[in-house]
């Protein structure tokens, strides 16, 4: 069954069938050919796959991201990031990365981060003499942080599919997200020196008065992650309810403090959130059928046997899983890969003795890295489109940043403490 499943899916993908339909139709083929399962399982699994209270958090966090863009939070966050790191070599590149770290704590979406931060930072970097490829690479790589630092829509999906606590996954992503940001800043500096660029810097005086002025403007935006994480850790609401709280918080900030909402911007924000949510839910519904067939075919047992045959060392087996996921994300959208393989891989990692939160963060980060690798890297396509360059030019510039992302992911794989310390501190 597994061979037919993957073959039919890949053929549909090569024919240009949209990813959600390719997954769903690919799962339908072995059911029809083998005839040992009723066709009704497709419909029941698709609806059952999205009929979940935890998944209700996704549209709310997506809406939080679109509302943040509608009230120009990106500009205010970038101003704070500029004050923090703007005087360093390749200052705008560092501002881009730090802004992604801050903005990711508001939206929880790598795609929203790439679009919002890229629209502002890429033109600014190009005007200061940064190569377009370098600017796009920094933006695409740093947007990965948007789905690592909590909140994270991908972690909500992973938690739902595997039964791992979303709150623990959120906190487990804090230190890895910071490490990713620091690694990207190091690479951005090295590349700037190598290319002889990045002599710009923020000339604003580093005085308390300047800081206070920026903090008053950007401070309300930073309330969103504080409210979300504080509420979840404190037990005041669930991650799903946190999505609703985030939307209400951003609406109040935009309407009462910044007063930057218009009816047109609100309409656009709600429509954009609806489109994105529909796309994610269609992929999730179809992928639920795909994953169910993998489970029925005992795919995880086959994978465990294969990994054991290669090496008995758990770390080597986990590294092979990372490489396999990266290979899949070269051709399949990273979100779809996560949804299709989250449950089987979680079972495999548990068999290898990995903490479920630790393995979950490693798998999510791996799929996110796939978002910046050609030829199907969604984040790289967004950044290249904003920079108005070919995907080939962006691909050449992204390689050092991809290596940095991989290095951090291997580090957190080898040192579980980096992931598990905060969840255990908060939840015991």
UniProtKB/TrEMBL annotation:
Give one Pfam family, short name only: DctM
Q: Does the keyword Flavoprotein apply?
A: no
Q: Which residues form the signal peptide?
A: none
GO CC list:
plasma membrane
Query: Which molecular function term from Gene Ontology is one that the record holds?
Result: transmembrane transporter activity
TM ranges are 46-70, 91-112, 132-157, 169-190, 219-237, 244-261, 273-294, 361-386, 398-422
Positions of the TRAP C4-dicarboxylate transport system permease DctM subunit domain: 7-416
Kindly give the membrane topology term recorded for this protein: Multi-pass membrane protein
Instruction: Kindly state which keywords UniProt assigns to this record, in alphabetical order.
Output: Cell inner membrane, Cell membrane, Membrane, Transmembrane, Transmembrane helix, Transport
Q: Where primarily located? A: membrane
Q: Where in the cell is it found?
A: Cell inner membrane
Cite the PANTHER family for this sequence.
SIALIC ACID TRAP TRANSPORTER PERMEASE PROTEIN SIAT-RELATED
Q: Which NCBIfam families match?
A: dctM
| Family per similarity comment | Belongs to the TRAP transporter large permease family.
Q: What does this protein do?
A: Part of the tripartite ATP-independent periplasmic (TRAP) transport system.
Q: How is the subunit organization of this protein annotated in UniProt? A: The complex comprises the extracytoplasmic solute receptor protein and the two transmembrane proteins.
Record's protein name: TRAP transporter large permease protein
Organism the protein comes from = Salipiger marinus
